[in-house]
Amino acid sequence: MKCSNFLAAALVAVSSALAQDVSTNSVGTDSVNSSWQPATLSTADARNKLNQAGTCCTALSLVLGGSKVSYAGNAPYSASLASYWTLQESNVHPKCIVSPANAQDVSLALFVLKVGNTVFPGQCNFAIRSGGHTPFAGAANIEAGITIDLSALNQVTVSADRTQVVIGPGNRWAGVYSQLDAKNLATSGGRVASVGVGGLTTGGGISFFSPRYGFVCDNVLNFDVVLASGQLVQANSKSNPDLWKALKGGSNNFGVVTAFTMRAFDQGKFWGGFIGIDISTIEQQFKAFSKILGSPTYDPFAAVIYSLVFDPVSGTWSVAAQLAYTKPQANPPFLQPLTSLPQTFSTMRISNLTDFTVELDASNPIGRRQLFATGTYGNSVDIMRAIWQISNSTVQPLRRIPNFKWSVSYQPEPTVITTKAASTGGNSLGLDASDGNIFNVLLTASWDNASDDAAVNAAAQSLFSQAAAKAQSLGVYNQYLYLNYAAPWQDPISGYGVAAKSSLQAASKKYDPDQTFQKNVPGGFKLFK
């Protein structure tokens, strides 16, 4: 009876508040600086009701309905864990998994959790999951806490004038693109089919279209966001513009995004795929990459992922370059510094966006232990060569690891990408024209056994520590770290620079005055470390 009373009170109170909030759908400066409370349920009353329920999971089940909260042993719980990309994340076991059906469910859940964390300190911490592609444990899952799985928020709605698309955070990018391909439209999004919309976008995001339109986050026109208080707001150029900017790179530190309104554009089939390049021409390859990156007239239709792949059995390296030219034009002159070199294989073709993301996804199988780590450097053949050489030396002790894989990928981030934000309301990444033409380095490692975690992480840390020292000696070190590629021992938020980090902290204090997303959402990269 006590639980039933709690359910009735909570539903009446929060539904009343939601009716008010959803009708306005935005907040001004004054309202976010004070704690919003449901109209008929005080914090004290909610605290009492939570005590009656006994746990946050029980309360959530009562408020949302039992079908939206699953526990260990339930099929939805097991299916959610099994769908994480890495073993590190699927081996994390929350107390319960909440599966909201809409933004109102998210609002109810956050209100219960916020109050619950005052009633049961440390027992109602939670994680937010979109696609679950971040490799490390706890990024989008939480041991003995509550995981909010946004998979059901998977709408894809194109505006009548075909210039915007509203995308739910539960989508994977292939699902978005398959619908847009059918309309000869696209939006800037991820390049790997199974990557989720939410994490990639709020972490910055790199796209095949980035040279044309900037980072993925630069293409968000509006965020629908549920704040820690449970209030549903909009963040765009006119409503809560500081929150809009903060969410463009600030990750999971401000609220739960329940919809992204993104810029859409006409896009048909284009040229792309993989080529293998003979390792004997490695020096020419570095020069070719540098020439492309440093071009004073960078072709905005060209995108490159240049990967050096280590074979632990033979101890040798091979090269695979993923190329895209977002026009139906084969082998454009701009990419010929790479394509003219002797090739070992090619999948180059004219196809659609979905197809290319599925191809990239094939090299990222689910269910293994994975590590990402990253660095950023100025355009220099010397640093490109040095990173490969350092990588070769640091990986050698890991050859003993069963089923081990290790690759280092270089990706151009020329000024045509980093300066786009200036015309789209800004972002939080801290990059501008003064950084010059830079490139991102992504280390990807995969293996099977947890007993090898420490050795792999130590090798990766050694690689990037040595690379930073070498880059500094060459004058090409850049502090920026792409958040979506960062290892848990890296600090991408600080890499944005002092000014950007301070702005993010100010937005956090304004929109989350009780610091719920800093204290009770431990996963990801926090703002005050």
From TrEMBL:
Entry superkingdom: Eukaryota
FAD-binding PCMH-type domain residues: 90-267
GO MF annotation terms: FAD binding; oxidoreductase activity
Entry keywords, A to Z: FAD, Flavoprotein, Oxidoreductase, Signal
SUPFAM superfamilies given in the database record: FAD-binding/transporter-associated domain-like
Signal peptide: 1-19
Keyword Flavoprotein on entry: yes
Record-linked PANTHER family: BINDING OXIDOREDUCTASE, PUTATIVE (AFU_ORTHOLOGUE AFUA_1G17690)-RELATED, FAD-BINDING PCMH-TYPE DOMAIN-CONTAINING PROTEIN-RELATED
Name of the protein in its database record: FAD-binding PCMH-type domain-containing protein
Naturally occurring in which organism (per UniProt): Cladophialophora chaetospira
